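Batch 3, record 17
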Amino acid sequence: MDNLFLANVGSFALVLGFLLSAYAVVAGIIAIRSNNSILAESVKGASIAIAINTTIAIVILEIFLLSGQFAIQYVAHYTSSDLPLFYRFSALWAGNEGSLLLWAWVLSLYSLAIALNNAVPRIKPIALTILNINNLFFLFVLSFISKPFVILNPPPVEGNGLNPLLQNPGMVIHPIAVYLGYVGFAVPYAFAMAAVIAKYPGDEWIKVTRRWTVLAWLFLSLGNLTGMEWAYVELGWGGYWAWDPVENASFMPWLTGSAFLHSVMVQERKDMLKVWNIFLISITYVLTLFGTFLTRSGVLSSVHAFADQSLGRYFLVFTLLALVGSLYLLIDRLNFLREGKEFESIISKESSFLLNNLLLVGAAFATFWGTTFPLFSELLTGEKVTVGAPFFNTVNVPIFLAFILLMGICPLIAWRKASVSRIFRNFTVPLFLALVVIIYLLIVGVRKPWAVASYFINFFVLFATLYEIFKGVKTRVKLTGENFVKALINLFAKNRRRYGGYIIHIGLVLIAIGITGSSLYDIEKNVTLTTNEKVTIKNYTIEFKGLREVRMNNVDAVVADIDVYQDGKYLTRLVPSKNFYPNEPNPTSEVAIKGSLKEDLYVVLAGWENQDTAIFKIKVNPLIAWIWIGGYFLIFGTVFALWPGKGAEMGPRVIGGPSLAKEAE
Amino acid sequence: MNQRTKILVGSGIIVIAIAFLFISAFASSGTSYSLQVDEAVYKIVYENAVDQKMRIEGRVLPGSISWNAKALELKFIMIPIKGSEKTQLPVVYNDVKPDNLEHPEAQIVVEGKYDGKVFQADTLLVKCPSKYEKKQQ
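Prediction for the assembled complex:
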């Protein structure tokens, strides 16, 4: 088979997928209106066919990438013949066309899973139709705007290669994770909209989509974390988060998605916050589209944006349609979404969840405002005005601290009505322990007010969560007579949702501790050293031993040898380098990091004047390892809560006497 | 006061607190003008915009880079991305010289203030159009 033929098959598969999606949308709408089961069955068939077509397209593109067919424009743009196989494979999502194809492929598989699933038969066809509208959009873009199978004539001899910054394992996981997260939110969104359209009361849609939501949230969290890690080890500026539009793009849906995960619990238990939940999931999905728009359009100048103006316009229109459509439906059907119950007490789990939601949505709004401010200011005043990182930090840091504090208090508060005195009794031990930690930190010289506040809140929440687990185990030991370890294991295994959630909370606290230390107490020095010269930073002494040149498979590197001494004792040798890739005009810096749980020593070879003189950027980043450790906790906790089987269902609904009396009124 | 009112009042207080935080952050952290080089030069010359935070996009005048490694001092002339090379803004940046500054297609973004003589940049970002997306052939 020659390239031309294969490329045509790929293009044809995409166009066919587009036509099938169009059919599935139209047939779906007619089937829903006329209750035509034969048509509805044909939509199922169309879903299978769409998934097959996107799979064919993605397989063909991978064949081209792996075999290095530079006659295909996409392959020529993002790979080269000296690129390792692994990165040829991952070049699928290095550029616009490939990553949109990946998006469409995942979406079509999700749609297929929903098509073959017979949950909530009354609203499923509508949800499927909404997913197919999304399929239609993406396949339209792939068929006519951003085509992956463009053929170059004559074919170039060599490709451009993959940007070296993207040749990093973290950059392989990051885009995939973000996409799986983005696309995953389409499923709960489609079901929520379907429930509204069908005026279908009840919270079936939440039960059906809960796993999807948590899974999407897991991938989005993973995507954000791997993005931070990549920025830290690969970009060489010593940080991991810059409030860059592209970072914010995936952070905003994470915030609203987190809010949604909590507020649906209130609906599950108490039949409340229905309108709010529909609103939240709509906003979350719209933000994923908006995030794609931001990264794809280059409308906001970001450090790392794919720029394609025309594609951006289509995305913007689609995003706005989704937003206006969702809000219109929601407002139109407010009446049927009447609340099942009222708040019974201001001090109750449901009201603390409401507060959690207000904080998360507030942070999302502030981030949105700061990100898009240049656009709106230009529209209104003609002058582009930007807000910098200080704005985001000033707004979000207090919100996040309040949010974390709530994370510690919330699990101790009962549903419906909690007793204040009992809450305070539960706090004495964690409060005491947190004070001990703070006194220790004050002694070792932590004095910045924000740092003290943040550490105090975070350690309090950490101890409160651990204490809560400890109390649960103790109760279980009393009741069952198991030993402590066995009781702990059983307690977690039998209430996986709750304790998975606690593990996630512990992860978030560890991340917050890491962020506090590394952002308030980092030290940076830029120095120019000659061979055998030393420089001291904190309690490290760094001795520059000279430069050498190294050849690796597709890289020429200039490596600096550095001996590191800590408190006068030899610690390790670090080898930061600058790598020169073929057909890349500029070198990239390979950072050298000596990490420990306490701090990272971070050294970048910034340049050199001659064989004996090199310039270094040296940083000490305290506690940064805890960001990644917290990330592992968060991922583990989510998987633990998600894992199918016993103990993953929601606990029984607790219905007490007083509330029944209230309902009767 | 029934529970519903209490909840509404409580939520209201939280929303107002967040709004207050928001406005005060906006006022205190300051905004900066995002400008092209020619707009920035216009502002400096005609509106006497000294010591105002600015974020300027442009490119480097070829051959204007002077880099003192010992002192970590980078000086260069910034010119508009499109348009005449006669519009020039001298920039001083006291930090490490980025790798791809000399790239012929490099577009740069500086943030900082004009001090009356030169533009003192606190940050310098280099964006290569070829970095992530190749130009359309």
